[in-house]
Amino acid sequence: MSGKKPPKLTLVKGQEKGKDRALTAKQSSFCESIVGINEDEPLTIVDAYRKHYSTENMSIDAQYVESSRLFNHPKCSLRIEQLRNEIEKRNIARNQSRKERVIFNLESLAYDNTNTGHTRVKSLELLGRMAGVDLFRDNHVIEDNRNAQDIKTELEKKIKSLLS
After folding, report:
1. Could you tell me the residue ranges of all domains in the chain?
2. Gap between the Cα atoms of 27 and 72, Å rounded
3. Which end of the chain, C or N, has fewer beta carbons within 10 A?
């Protein structure tokens, strides 16, 4: 061993292997297929893998293993969760918009004097039945202050009386 010192190596920021890399196009498409983007319905993990990767030379077991591995890849699983959250937010917004349109139209029908009395009353009834209003819904609340032992004892007495 000669007296040479080993070179001093430093890691340049952002150059760590595998860090800060975006998903590949195939990985991104795989994630989108799992949540149902550009599909009629969401695909299974293995079907999404088969759609976006070459599997002709793979056994079925290998396809399942590799699709599971890709699905559990940290960046893929994070992207799938992000896509699911985006879809959920869009669905909530769409449903809220629909609800607002229905309420607006029912109110228009109810307060338009040119409509028949039946139409106006039915519109008001439907407005009253909407969740959050519940004017025409019977709500029964039953309170029972007995503990489990009291209920058990009462049931045992009733069973004895029925059997004797």
Report:
1. 25-129
2. 12
3. N
